[in-house]
Amino acid sequence: MFVAAHLLLFKLHLPSRYTEHSWRIIFAIASGIVLTILLDAILRIGNRGARVVSGEMRRKIRNYSSFPLWQLPYQLLSVILTALIASLILFYPALVDDFPLTKYKEGHFPTLYHFFESQPKDSLISSVAEEANNIPTFAQRSILVGREYAIPYHLGYYRQFRQRIIELIQAQYTPDMTELKDFIRKFGIDFWLLEENSFTPQYLAQNQWLQPYQPAILEAEKNIAQGIIPALSKVVNDCSVFNREGFIVLKSTCILEKR
Predict the structure, then answer these.
(1) Which long-range contacts (CB under 8 A, 24 or more apart) does 151-155 make?
(2) How far apart are CA 134 and CA 78, in angstroms?
(3) Rounded-to-integer distance, Cα 221 and Cα 199, Å
(4) Which pairing describes strands 191-195 and 240-244: parallel, antiparallel, or unpaired?
């Protein structure tokens, strides 16, 4: 299934959909096997200590009510190791934050998700914001690109993905309204998701996942630093259909009507 998912990329299912959970099960079983082997080795150490007790030591044990622990080093070692392993197993969860680590994603902007959920199901959303990754899951709506999809499954897929994100960056920060409109028409964008600080120099500099997409990012940073105003920022007030929780959503049909 793993190989088939790669050959039929996104038509069958995401290639890592089942392997991720399979590895967790494999690691859990492997951990149990390792612990069993360790405990077995410890018991063997203890049994070895019992076998090497000499006849003279046995007589001492019979003659004295108590027997010094240092004369039974193997048994003592096995007890200590067993107690140590048991303590690690019992107290490990207390030492790890958010145990068990399920990697479940939580949506922190329900109002945004509800807004997109109320839009037509075939809506396509364009954005370079990190939160765009959660829209397909929590709003059941499609996005043009997202960080979670920037996995180079194979060269053909990643080449197309990279070209899309570069064109998106160029369109978002271009001062040319015609270039912006051409991008919207080319991909059939319905909504454009922005963050309140999307047009600041710090936004691009701190957005690590966008940095590899050069020279588009460098050019956008240079334009903003020089005070060149992106065409998209000029239509925010007129074309905004959502403005809450630090996010702004623009309707593409409104952008296309602008000059």
Answers:
(1) 153/6, 153/9, 153/15, 154/6, 154/9
(2) 51
(3) 9
(4) unpaired
Q: What is the secondary structure of 149-185 as a DSSP string?
A: G---SSHHHHHHHHHHHHHHHHHHH-S-HHHHHHHHH
Q: Of 52, 71, 95, which marks where a domain is finished? A: 95
pLDDT by residue (tens digit) across 201-259? 889 888 888 888 989 999 999 999 999 999 999 999 999 999 999 999 999 999 999 87
In a domain, 100, yes or no: no
Q: Which parts of 2-134 are beta strand (E)? A: 124-126
8: containing domain: 2-95
- Identity at 207, one-letter amino acid code: N
Number of structural domains, the chain?
2
Within 8 A by CB and 6+ apart from 42, the residues are 78, 81, 82, 85
Domain end among 95, 121, 140? 95
pTM: 0.71
